[in-house]
Specification:
This protein is α/β, with parallel strands linked by helices. It contains nine helices and eight strands. It has helices at about 15-25, 45, 60-70, 120-130, 150, 170-185, 200-210, 225-230, 240-250; strands spanning about 1-5, 30-35, 95-100, 100-105, 140-145, 160-165, 190-195, 215-220. Strands 3-4-2-5-1-6-7-8 form an eight-stranded mixed β-sheet, sandwiched between helices. This is Cellulose synthase operon protein YhjQ. One of its GO terms (cellular component) is cytoplasmic side of plasma membrane.
Length: about 250
């Protein structure tokens, strides 16, 4: 299964990715987390790993990939960064961080001011996710960048299911409407995960969502999760809500 996780900035996408990855690993499933967000600096800490080198460097670096894209304009379908299908065991080990059965790959990061757009990272993320060949028990979790640009890059259409994280904010509720339409346009199932809630707030959020039947998980506001996020600590403990989420995803 390939799972794409999306939402507004600060909604808790990386938190969900880490909790979900740990839960699958506890169930002895091979797990790969793909960090497709070029500005995310904390996901590896939540997973308890070092930051892996940018996978972009395996393909020659951002400048090399960018040159291939420019040379192929306007026919970007001719750019093939990954020629052969990879399994999880084919991943270049120097670009993989691992802890407690969870592997992490980072597509690439913006490192310097003025270095240009993140288009090469977007293309690599799409081709990498789409080119993975999974075994029956393998799980891949793609933590996407905030907002909707990853839909424009075509990353989400390579997933089997999309989980959108909603926090208690007007922006999350409105973004849910936009993303629902986009997911419908590419034919990928979309579900909502309510995050940072209490019972009263969750009820108000349900009232503001056009299709509350898409809600398949609620993660309550927990001091432990907040502390881990602030301190850059690994999220190692299981959560009942995440266990139930896995059961729903397995049974869909």
């Amino acid at each position: 299964m390939k799972i794409a996780i999306c939402g507004k900035g600060g909604s808790g996408k990386s938190t969900l990715a880490a909790l979900l990855a740990r839960e699958y690993a506890r169930r002895n499933r091979p797990v790969l987390v793909i960090d497709t967000d070029e500005s995310n600096l904390g996901l590896h800490r939540l997973l308890g790993t070092d930051a892996p080198p940018d996978l972009m460097n395996y393909f020659g670096g951002k400048m090399t990939v960018g040159a291939k894209i420019m040379a192929a304009m306007p026919d970007l379908t001719s750019v093939h960064l990954i020629e052969d299908a990879w399994t999880l065991d084919d991943l270049p080990k120097d670009y993989v961080a691992e802890d407690h059965g969870v592997r992490l790959v980072a597509i690439g990061k913006i490192h310097d001011a003025g270095e240009g757009c993140a288009c090469p990272m977007g293309m690599l993320a799409k081709q990498f996710l789409g080119g993975l060949r999974l075994g029956d028990n393998d799980v891949v979790i793609a933590d996407t960048e905030a907002g909707i640009e990853h839909f424009g890059r075509g990353i989400d259409q390579e997933a089997d299911v999309i989980l959108m994280v909603l926090d208690p904010s007007f922006e999350s509720l409105r973004l849910a409407e936009k993303i629902t339409g986009m997911a419908g346009g590419i034919g990928i199932p979309l579900y909502y995960v309510l995050n940072k809630t209490d019972p009263a707030m969750a009820a108000r959020m349900r009232e503001g969502i056009a299709d509350p039947s898409r809600i398949i998980c609620e993660i309550p506001q927990e001091p432990g999760i907040l502390e881990a996020g602030l301190g850059g600590q690994a999220l190692t403990d299981g959560r009942p809500a995440i266990g139930l989420l896995v059961e729903v995803l397995e049974g869909r």
